[in-house]
Amino acid sequence: MDGVHDMGGMHGFGKVEPEQNEPVFHDDWERRLYALYRAMSYAGVWVIDQARFARERLPPAVYLASSYYRKWELGMEKLLAELGLVGPDELAAGHALRPGKTLKRKLAARDVPNIVTRGSYSRPPQAPARFKPGDRVRTKNIHPTTHTRLPRYARDRIGVIEAVRGCHVFPDTVAINKGEDPQWLYTVVFDGRELWGEDAESSLKVSIEAFEPYLEPA
Amino acid sequence: MAQKHEHDHDHGEHGSELSEMQLRVRALETVLTEKGYVDPAALDAVIEAYETKVGPHIGARVVAKAWTDPSFKRTLLDDGTKAVLSLGIINRVGDHLIAVENTPNLHNMIVCTLCSCYPWEVLGLPPVWYKSAPYRSRAVNDPRGVLADFGVKLPAGTAIRVWDSTAETRFIVLPMRPAGTDGWSEEKLAGLVTRDSMIGTGLAKAASEVA
Q1: pLDDT digits (tens, 9 = 90+) for B101-156
Q2: Pick from A133, B3, B6, B97: most CB atoms within 10 A?
Q3: Of B140, B125, B132, B128, which is closest to residue B56 (Cα–Cα)?
Q4: Same domain flag for B183 and B90
Q5: Is residue B1 part of a domain?
C-alpha cells in the first residue's frame, strides 16, 4: 500500500539524531512489549509480513506520531483483534473476559536461546529463476492497496540484477493470508540518477531486494 | 492478575503516574497471560537475552576476525551466514546474512525504508535513529547528508552504495581496518569496531582512540 511507512526519498523529516550511549530499551513498557511480540510470533499466530501490514494500516497521523514500539503495540492490538485472539473489550477491562484459544505452541524460557536468531524464509522454487546477474530489468509500476515490499521510489525504474538470493516466501501474498507463494529474490541495483534525477550524486547507487513478480525484462 | 514485575522501580524517575503506554502494555500482558498465550518467565528471558547477550559486540568479533584472517573474510563475503556460524559465537544465524565490504573507493550503508529491518543476530536491536523517519527517508537519496549528521565526511572520490533491506536478507558492513593496527590481536581490533561502522553511518575508530 502507498502508505506513510514507505519513506524512502521523502523530504521534511529533518536531521538524523544519534543518541550517545543509547540503552537497548528506553522504558520498561518497551521491554515487555518487545518480549510479548516475540512470544506471540513464536506461538505462530502471525508471520512477519502480517505484523508489518498491521502497522502499515495504522492511520497515517498515528503512524508518524508514534515511536517504533508504540507502532508495534498498536499493530499487535489490531492483529490480535482481527485474529479473534483478544478483544478490544478485554484490553479495555485489563483482564481476559473469555478463555484463550489453543495456539500452535507457547514460548518457554528454555526456548529463548533459539529465538534470538531468525527463522528461514527460503522455500523450494516453483519455477527456474527468470533473471541472472547482469540482466537489465524494469521494476513494475504497481500500486497495490495491500502489502508490498517494492518501495515507491523504486517503481518503474531500470536497474541491474546484481545477485540472486534464492527463493523466498512472498510477502505480498503471505501478508493477506493468500499463502507463501515462494518467489525468486534478487538484489537489483539502480543508479542514483535513475531514481532521483539529474541532481543526484553521479556515483550513488542504491539497491533493493526485489521479488521476481516486481520485475520485467528491460 | 496484574503483572507486578521486578522492573517497576524503573518508573521512579517518571513519577508515580503510569503513562498511556505503560497502561496499555500492562493490560496486554495481563490479558495474554490470563489467556494462556504467554509465560511471563519466557518474557523475562527474551528481555535478558536482548539486553545482555545479543548486541554489536558479536558483529565486532566478526569484523575483527575478517580483518585478521583472509580466508575467513572470503567466506564472510561469500556467505555471511556460514561464516558467522563458523565462529561459534551464536548457535544459529538467519539464512540470509550478507556482508558488504568498504574500500577506499566504495562506502556501503544499510537502511530499511519500509520498516526497520536490521541484522539482530549480529548487532542486537536497532537504535532509535535507525528506525526514525529522518534516516529511513534520507539514507537512499542523501546518504552523504546523513553521514554529515553523524559527523562523518568521506573523500569526494568515495562512491556510496545504499542497501535497502526490503526482504528477509540482512546486511552488515565490513568497515575498513584502521591504519596503524598491524599486529593487533582480534580482541583489540574488535574494540575499534563500532555499531555504526557496521551499519555504514560511521567508520571504525582510529587506533589512537583505544591505544
Answers
A1: 999 999 999 999 999 999 998 999 999 999 999 999 999 999 999 999 999 999 99
A2: B97
A3: B125
A4: yes
A5: no
Options 3.40.50.1440, 3.40.50.300, 2.30.30.50, 1.20.1250.20; which CATH number does A136-217 get?
2.30.30.50
Give the number of beta-carbon pairs within 8 Å between A and B: 291
Task: Please give the CATH architecture assigned to the domain spanning A28-115.
Answer: Orthogonal Bundle (1.10)
- Residue B16 is predicted with a pLDDT of 57
Domain boundaries, chain A: 28-115, 136-217
Where is the domain boundary, B32, B52, B72? B52
Which cell goes with B181? Answer: 593496527
Give the ipTM: 0.97
Residue B137 falls in the annotated catalytic set: no
* Interchain proximity B34–A86, CB inside 8 Å: no
Asked if residue B65 lies in contact with residue B71, where contact means CB atoms within 8 angstroms, the answer is no
Angle subtended at Cα B113 by Cα B111 and Cα B119, rounded to the nearest 5 degrees: 40
Which one of the listed residues B115, B132, B137, B185 is annotated catalytic? B115
User: Considering the domain boundaries, does residue B89 fall inside one?
Assistant: yes
Assign residue B174 the CATH number of its domain.
3.90.330.10
Q: What share of chain A has pLDDT > 90, as a percent?
A: 95
Closest chain A residue to the Cα of B9, Cα to Cα? A28
Give long-range contacts, CB 8 A cutoff, 24+ apart: B53-58: B53/A116, B54/A116, B54/B90, B54/B120, B54/B121, B54/B124, B54/B125, B55/A24, B55/B123, B55/B124, B56/B122, B56/B123, B56/B124, B56/B193, B56/B194, B56/B195, B56/B198, B57/B190, B58/B89, B58/B90, B58/B121, B58/B122, B58/B123, B58/B124
- The pLDDT tens digits of the residues spanning A117-169 come to 667 899 999 999 999 999 999 999 999 999 999 999 999 999 999 999 999 99
The three cell numbers of residue B90 are 551464536
How many folded domains does chain B comprise?
Answer: 2
How far is Cα A99 from Cα A145, in angstroms, rounded to an integer? 35
pTM passes above 0.90: yes
Q: Does the pLDDT of residue A113 top 70, yes or no?
A: yes
List, as ranges, residues 15-44 from B with C-beta within 8 Å of A: 19, 21-22, 24-32, 34-39, 41-44
Nearest to B35 among A55, A96, A150 (CB): A96
